[in-house]
Design goal:
single chain, about 100 residues, alpha+beta, Multidrug-efflux Transporter Regulator, Chain: A, Domain 2, 4-stranded antiparallel β-sheet, 4 strands, about 10% strand
């Protein structure tokens, strides 16, 4: 199912993804995703019927982008700490 907007300045298509496509996008098993949903750490699906759920692709991609941003920020913090530690080691060596 796709919702398509034909307006020139409108947002691009919004696709609703089944669990198989979600697991492919995020690289996690279905059981892990449902665990994360229960823990409010992954977007809940939309219920389309009594036995049918789908995830808006933009929400899944936004979740992935947020995880990447968190990892990049953590890596940046580590680099700052490493640089500071090297400076301390260099200054301690110069003082000897």
């Amino acid at each position: 199912m796709q919702l398509v907007s034909s307006s020139p300045g409108a947002t691009p298509r919004e696709r609703l993804l089944p669990i198989e496509q979600v697991t492919d996008l995020v690289g996690l098993k279905k059981s892990k995703l449902y665990e994360m949903i229960r823990e409010k750490r992954f977007p809940e699906p939309l219920r389309l019927g009594t036995r049918t759920v789908r995830w808006p692709e933009t929400r899944v991609r936004a979740w992935v982008a947020a995880r990447i941003a968190e990892a990049d920020a953590a890596e940046g913090r580590v680099q700052v700490l490493v640089t500071a530690l090297k400076a301390q080691i260099d200054s301690a060596g110069a003082a000897q």
